[in-house]
Specification:
single chain; 453 residues; alpha/beta; TIM Barrel; eight-stranded parallel β-barrel; two-stranded antiparallel ribbon; binds flavin mononucleotide
Length: 453
């Protein structure tokens, strides 16, 4: 049986994916600015043998619907949002094995300083840091950072390719493995001959520098990515070690998974060099009736307006310009291409605002799996075996009880069916995922390593 892995999918904010549920009396997400909230959260996930907590992030506001951020602000739709990286050391201090996948938009991060921040986190967590590489989909983020608007969709990936080359060279090339000597008697901390400057003169970036951090356990963090457009898949197949996919139908997801793995092989990698994680929302209970009752209870707090705000921004479409039953012209989006394709697949080519709202039963386009734990465990196993999925990024609903339900009810069933670990493997995050702490030699990032003389 394939081993299924779980990540909690969250954000340093109140309303993440399922919009409106923060109003539920038992929901604790309003405590996002309380460090003890995250520490307790991390400990709980580690009790459930989760691979990691995955933190999304955006660098702008959702102001596409009605060309205003007012509704996002009213409904806490990913705003206010705090920096995800700051949470990591606190959560790492109270856990031993949990991994941390942190989203950072490279468009607005100078590569030199960014590489150092990630190296610092890799040191402090003893090799438990991952980076979700994103290029953004919000014009508001571009304007906030002094640009007129975003670059065109595919150009963003070209920029990302160049960025990756720089950070790989800082992480993998600059310091040789034995550069740090730490010889107190000789007064020699590090061997200057083994620390190298990198010189990069590219289209977007120019840089001449040695990396400021000494080699960390993983050097390059575990690389996550979520692009499903043709250009996004090519990028994922080249760089990503964990890829996020979304979808409602096994066949559709299987096709994406197989395509990315095939493209990875074309890029000189092995199909299993990439772990596939699927986004999922689960509402469960001991029985079907208990799960349904919980679902109906949660549903009372859903905000359709907030769900529409989120969908408008991630699809790049202002729904306020359409009557409820007027067909929506999709055209070519400059936001998240794969989201637009997914909605067209789900709602049909003649989709409307009303059809979209009908799909968003729990406050997002991600349809929840609702059912008894036994039934959900069976569905997860089916997804894993039939679509080639390695794990699930579990969106929160009412937090933390949604994760308590998964840990108390679903994990033991999966363990019984030998589809879930009973203890953590040792070592850094990459070692737990792939059996080795460093990028494999066949990964493009490893090509920058200095060859032994
Ligand atoms: C599960 C999932 C999580 C994502 N998380 C973020 C995020 O936190 N921040 C962000 O800017 N984009 C996020 N994205 C968007 C992707 O990084 C990427 O921009 C988008 O999927 C581009 O896909 P495309 O190549 O299909 O256009 C996410 C996408 C998916 C599917």
């Amino acid at each position: 049986m394939r081993e299924i892995r779980f990540n909690a999918f969250d954000m340093n904010t109140v309303g993440h994916i399922q919009q409106g549920l923060w109003r539920h009396p038992r929901d604790q997400s309003y405590r996002y600015h309380d460090i003890t909230y995250w520490m307790d959260y991390a400990k709980r996930l580690e009790e459930g043998l989760f691979d990691g907590i995955f933190l999304a992030d955006v660098s702008g506001v959702y102001d596409v619907l009605g060309a205003s951020a007012d509704a996002a602000i009213r409904g806490a739709v990913q705003v206010p949002v705090n920096d995800p990286m700051m949470l990591v050391p606190a959560m790492a201090a109270v856990t031993t094995h949990l991994g941390f996948g942190v989203t950072a938009n490279l468009t607005y991060e100078p590569p030199f300083l960014f590489a150092r921040r990630l190296s610092t986190l890799d040191h402090l967590t003893q090799g438990r840091i991952g980076w979700n590489i994103v290029t953004g989909y919000l014009d508001s983020a571009a304007r906030a950072n002094g640009l007129a608007g975003q670059m065109a969709h595919d150009d963003r990936y070209d920029l990302a390719d160049e960025y990756m080359e720089i950070v790989y060279r800082l992480w993998e090339e600059s310091w040789e493995d034995d550069a740090v000597v730490f010889d107190r008697d000789a007064g020699l901390y590090a061997d200057a001959a083994k620390v190298h400057k990198i010189h990069h003169h590219g289209r977007q970036y120019r840089l001449e520098a040695m990396h400021l951090s000494a080699p960390s356990p993983q050097r390059t963090p575990v690389l996550y990515q979520a692009g499903s457009s043709p250009r996004g898949r090519k990028f994922a197949a080249t760089h990503a070690e964990c890829v996020f996919v979304n979808g409602q139908k096994i066949d559709g997801v299987k096709a994406i998974v197989e395509d990315i793995r095939a493209k990875a092989v074309e890029a000189g990698r092995e199909p299993d060099d990439i772990k596939m994680f699927m986004g999922a929302t689960i509402v469960t209970g001991r029985t079907e009736a208990e799960a349904r009752e919980k679902f109906e209870d949660y549903r009372r707090y859903v905000s359709s307006e907030a769900a529409l705000v989120h969908a408008a921004a991630s699809l790049g479409i202002d729904f306020s310009k359409y009557d409820p039953d007027e067909p929506i012209e999709t055209g070519k989006s400059n936001a998240i291409t794969s989201n637009v394709e997914a909605i067209t697949r789900a709602a049909g080519p003649q989709w409307t605002r009303r059809k979209l709202l009908q799909q968003m039963v729990l406050g997002s386009r991600q349809a929840p799996m609702v059912g008894a734990a036994d039934d959900i465990a069976g569905q997860l196993i089916a997804w894993s075996e039939q679509a080639g999925i390695d794990g699930f990024n579990l969106s929160r609903t009412v937090v933390p009880e949604c994760f308590d339900d998964i840990i108390d009810l679903i994990v033991p069933i999966l363990q019984e069916r030998q589809a879930y670990k009973t203890h953590y493997a040792e070592g850094p995050m990459r070692q737990k995922l792939f059996g080795t702490p460093r990028l494999p030699d066949r990964h493009v990032g490893a090509s920058h390593r200095r060859k032994a003389p």
